Amino acid sequence: MRYTFGPLGAVLFSDQMPLEKELALFESKKSELLQNYSGKFALIHEDEFVDAFDSAENAYDAGVSKFGKSPFLVKKISEEPEVYRNQALALGLMNARI
Q1: Is residue 88 within 8 Å of 61, Cβ to Cβ?
Q2: Is residue 87 included in any domain, yes or no?
Q3: Is residue 89 part of a domain?
Q4: Would you say residue 11 lies in a domain?
Q5: 4: which strand partners?
Q6: How far apart are CA 11 and CA 51, in angstroms?
Q7: d(CA 58, CA 64)
Q8: What is the pLDDT of residues 25-56, one digit of tens each?
Q9: CA nearest 44: which of 17, 62, 69?
Q10: Residue-range definition of the domain harbouring residue 72
Q11: pTM for this structure?
Q12: Tally of domains within the chain
């Protein structure tokens, strides 16, 4: 069970992880998105594909303008999954306990 704080500090309970719905929509439409928007960045809010943008920054700005503090997903449309690397961790400047 997950919880978040809603308006006025109310605790909201949910079995769904944040952005789970948006990620599921992205995966279900991935082949269509690749055909039409390969290399761009998708902006997805709840169960709606909003638009594709040339940069992550433009997609993020549009998401903030349109949805404010409501969660939204910005994800690159590409065949290969994105891999994020933390340079500080890779260079030994920081340690992770697993």
Answers
A1: no
A2: no
A3: no
A4: no
A5: 12
A6: 32
A7: 10
A8: 999 999 999 999 999 999 999 999 999 999 99
A9: 62
A10: 18-79
A11: 0.69
A12: 1
